[in-house]
From TrEMBL:
This is Rhodanese-like domain-containing protein. Pfam families: Rhodanese. SUPFAM superfamilies: Rhodanese/Cell cycle control phosphatase. PROSITE patterns: RHODANESE_3. PANTHER family: FAD-DEPENDENT OXIDOREDUCTASE, SULFURTRANSFERASE YTWF-RELATED. It comes from the Bacteria. Residues 8-93 form the Rhodanese domain. InterPro entries: GlpE_sulfurtransferase, Rhodanese-like_dom, Rhodanese-like_dom_sf.
Length: 96
């Protein structure tokens, strides 16, 4: 599984796989919201080469593994939204 830093992710399409209440609490600017529970049904919406992000990197790692099985190139964002926000990257909504 490929892992990337938030700085590397900033140049890619970002898919946030957290639950709706987590998304509403704050997310990376420009991210696409597809909760982990909806990935199978919405896999066609995931851009090839996307950076996958969750709160800390665990759920997104599972999603990246699934996407790889589907033939999509995706990378896990190390440290998730917590690291993204800690590094001062652009956020929409309150910082988590």
């Amino acid at each position: 599984m490929r892992e990337i830093t938030p700085a590397e992710a900033a140049a890619l399409p970002i898919v946030d796989v957290r639950e709706p209440h987590e998304w509403q609490a704050g997310h990376a600017d420009g991210a696409i919201h597809i909760p982990m529970s909806e990935i199978v049904a919405r896999v066609a919406e995931v851009p090839d080469g996307a950076a996958i992000i969750c709160r800390s990197g665990a759920r997104s790692a599972q999603v990246v593994a699934y996407l790889a099985q589907q033939g999509l190139d995706a990378a896990n964002v190390e440290g998730g939204t917590l690291r993204w926000a800690a590094e001062g990257r652009p956020m929409t909504g309150p910082v988590v």
